[in-house]
Amino acid sequence: MRKIFLIFLFIFCVFQFGCAESNLSALDEKEWDFGRVKQGVIASHDFIFENFTSQVLKITSIHTSCGCTVSDAPKKTLLPGEKTAINVRFNSKGYNGEVKQFVYVNTDNPDLEVVKFVIKANVIKN
pTM of the entire structure? Predict the structure, then answer.
């Protein structure tokens, strides 16, 4: 348990303060900006999610903040060190201007229950 806490503390430090380089997976990239997207286009991105714990990690569910965004993972059970993609698709139909949506990956690890990913876009009319 202490080891997991120390890993989390290290990850927090890396992301909040840039105090070290990291190879710790999806947590390296938690936000993606599609930039300018034409209205009606479906933009997609894959976040890489890695089990950096010493235990088997199960993705129990994936939720998004809006029906315009869908997400899935091809692999739901990860051995230590194993990776999977978190596929995210954003449908820009009906949007105009800056958009920010969230993807919540729920796991069975109490120290990593929910991992939040963010996608952004600047939707422009055709």
Answer: 0.75
